[in-house]
Amino acid sequence: MDTVEQHSMLEPRSARLARPAYSSLSSSPELSIIVPTFNERENVAELTKRLRKCLARRSWEVIFVDDDSPDGTAEAVRELAATDARVRCIQRLGRRGLSSACIEGMLATSAPYLAVIDADLQHDERLLPRMLDTLKQGETDIVVASRYAPGGGIGDWGAGRARISRLATRLSRILVPANLTDPMSGFFMMRRSVFMGSVRRLSAIGCKILTDVFASSPQPLRFQEMSYRFRLRNAGESKLDSLTAWDYAMLLLDKLIGHLVPVRFLAFSIVGALGIAVHFSVLALLLWPLHRDFVESQSIATLCAMTFNFAVNNVLTYRDKRLRGPQWLRGWLSFILACSVGGLANVGLASSLYRSDHEWIPAAIAGILVGAVWNYAATTTLTWGQSRK
Ligand code: GDD
Ligand code: MN
Predict the structure, then answer these.
(1) Which of 135, 160, 369, 373 has the fewest Cβ atoms nearer than 10 Å?
(2) Which domain-ending residue is among 178, 205, 238?
C-alpha cells in the first residue's frame, strides 16, 4: 500500500472528498520555473495566470525566490500557493542578488528541466513549451530566449541602456561562445544535469546568471536560441541600477582570476587604496590650510579614511549584504574596531621588520599586506557576516 492510500484511510471521508486528486502531487514536476523577485507583488498573480494558460497539460511548478521584499511579494506568493500546489515560495532573509536567488531556487527542486524567467512579464512566457520540447529532444543542453537573434527585439529601451547592453555583451565574449547572441538574457531553460555539473563553480555574483552558467560549465554547452521581443515591464520598476555594471565586472574578474584570489578581497583592496587617497587629502587639508597639530590631523584623517572605506565597501564589495539604518551604524563601529586592530598589526610587523634590516619598502609592504588580510577577514565576519532580519 503506498503512502497516499495510507493517509486517506486515516482521514474522515469528508476531508477526502474535499481534497483535489493526489496524483498531481505524487511525482515531481517535469519543469520548474524559477522566478527571482524583489518588490513584484503586483506581478506574481498575473505571471502565474499566464503560466497556467501556456503550460496547460504540462507538468510544471513555479518557484518564486524572494529577497524579503518590503512590498510583501512573498506573502502574495504564499496566498497563490494556498490554492495551487504548483506555486512555491522561497523567502530569503538579509540577502540580495538575482543570480544567487536563481541558484537557490534551482537547488530546491528535483524537476529535470529548469527555467529562469523575470516576474515583471518582460519575457515572453509563451516560449516555454517550445523550449521544453526542444530540450526533450535530447540534442540541446540549454535554450536561450534572445533579444538579439533575428526576429527579436529590445522594446523601447533608451539609447543609453541599449549601448551599455551591447558593450557588456561584447565584453562577455571572453567567457561565452561567440555565436551566443544574448549572453545577458535573463530568460532560459536548461537540463538539471547541466546545472548540477557547474553549480559548485558558479560565481553567483550580480544578475547575469546565464553568463555565469556558460562560463562555469566544464564542457561547452550545446545551445539553441529562440528570439522574442522584450516587453515593457508590467507593474513596478527595474531593480537593476548603475552598480549592475560593477557586479558584472566582478563576475568577469571572478571567472578570470577568482581561482587565484577572491574577487571580494580584490574589491576590498581597491577600495582600501582609494581610502589612502582620502587619508592624505584630509591630512593635507588639516595640516596646511587649517594648521592643526599632526597627531590630531592624523587621527581625524584615519577616521575619515576608515569611514570612507566602510561606506564604499558596503555599497560595492558587500552589495548583496548591504547594511542600512541602525545596522549601518553598528556595522561602521565594528569596521572601525576591526580595522584598528589591523592597523596595529600593520605597524607592529612593519616596525619589527624595519628594526631588523632597515629596509623600509619591504617592511611597509609586509605590514600593509598583513593589515589588509586581517581587515578583510575580520570585517567579512564581524561587519557583514551576521544574517540580519
Ligand atoms: N530575489 C531577487 N533578488 N530578485 C531580484 C533582485 C534581487 O536582488 N533584483 C532583481 N530581481 C528580480 C526582479 O524582481 C525581476 O523579477 C527580475 O529579477 C529582473 O529584474 P528587473 O529589475 O526587472 O531587471 P531588468 O528588466 O532591468 O533586466 C532583466 O532583463 C534583462 C534582459 O533579459 C534582467 O533579467 C537582466 O539580467 C537581463 O539582462
Ligand atoms: Mn525587468
Answers:
(1) 160
(2) 238
